[in-house]
Amino acid sequence: MFKDICRCSNSFYFIGIGGVSMSALAKLMYFWGKKIAGSDIVFNDYINELQTLGIKVNTSGIADDISGFDVIIYTDAVSQNDILLAEARKLNKIILSRGQFLNEVSKNFGSVIAVSGCHGKTTCTAMLAHIFKAADKKFCVHIGGRDLTFGNLYIDGKDYFITEACEYKKNFLYLTPAVGIVLSSDADHLECYGNAEELKKSYKIFADSSHVKIGLYGDIISGGLTFGFNKNASYSARAICQTEEKYSFDAYEGDTKLGRIILNVYGKHNILNALAAIAAARSAQIGFNQIKLGLSQFNGVERRFEKLGKINGAEVIADYAHHPGEIAATLKTVKKIAAENMYVVFQPHTYSRTKLLFKKFVRVLSPLQNLLIYKTYAAREFYDDEGSALTLSLKIKNSRYGEDERDITEFVARASQGDMILFLGAGDIYQIAKRVVKNLSAHP
């Protein structure tokens, strides 16, 4: 369908254009020579980047005139009652959700590699981009975050399309990739699926729709390639060493040693991301030397254990972790490298996730001695007291609740030399953290 749209249409309007995935798709259409515009409710760095390219983005809250656009794309955070969607239907425009549009985009490439899973999608996708660049492949990568080298989009040809496959509202089921990766099947987005079994069923459908399926050893995928720490996995890591939570390991393909991999990013969980990327790269006939080079050139993704600066001599780290499993992995890494105290600011992302995983959040956060839980980033949702940040904070003995930026500033200002300050969450906590660091650095 998209090839027809691409041939017959020259203009695309994105509702919710400021999202990391949507802004990347908008840029791709722009670089393909299309007329692009869009709207969002708040200004951010991604919108600034689009405007720098000359793309018109409306953040005024006043509805645009979309009559001059052929195709309307909307993010799932947009209500079906949105005024622009209603106008698009009235005008008989072609209307596609972000997931549908991503699938149509993918049809323009020779081979699609899609990365799914509750944890690690962005990191694994970015790792693959570096590997394919090192192998001199003609590819395009669409990243659900900002790689420190490539940003959220890199275009160097149409042989391969590397993309994240988001499970929210079963969006990843629109894709039928040549290579489908399932990094994990941990429960998330249960407000969409109802229960963990339904989510796992969708992961299996996604994997089975792929020509080559790759999954974590011992998880849900059967009949495909596997990766993991177990020696029986198709791709495994052995002779693992770590220095200040940066890891190296011998990569094995079955019983054959491929060679030594040295990672430049923190956390043992990134070994699994690297193994998944290795498996996908090998399925594309990429040699180990190119894989090793690509992984050595991967220096991380924005908001994935990113150093933001220092406050009173304490290192400040921002991490996207917003699921209990991700938080546990990040805290484990910090505890191994933090010399003294750890100050944690956590912003829950959506009321529904907090409510559905409430006990797990309590379990993973309760051991912390210095914890501030900041008001929930609602995203697409309305207030729900049972899933609010305040309710979560009241359940955790040593935590305090923060309602505005001043609460965070006062909390982290207590840190000193040798401590570590950790900002966790997928909402606007990242922008807040950067402002707090800047303000406290300027006025110690």
Structure characterization notes:
The protein is of the alpha/beta class and 444 residues long. The chain has 3 domains: 95 residues, Rossmann fold; 188 residues, 3-Layer(aba) Sandwich (UDP-N-acetylmuramoyl-L-alanine:D-glutamate ligase); 137 residues, Alpha-Beta Complex (Protein-Tyrosine Phosphatase, Chain A), CATH 3.90.190.20. It is 35% helix and 26% strand. The chain is built from 16 helices and 21 strands. The strands form 3 sheets. The chain has a 10-stranded mixed sheet with strand order 8-7-9-6-10-11-12-13-14-15, sandwiched between helices. A 6-stranded mixed sheet has the order 16-17-21-18-19-20, with helices on both faces. It has a 5-stranded parallel sheet with strand order 3-2-1-4-5, sandwiched between helices. A hairpin with a 3-residue loop joins strand 7 and strand 8. Helix 6 packs across helix 9 and helix 6 crosses helix 10. It is globular, with a radius of gyration of 22 Å.
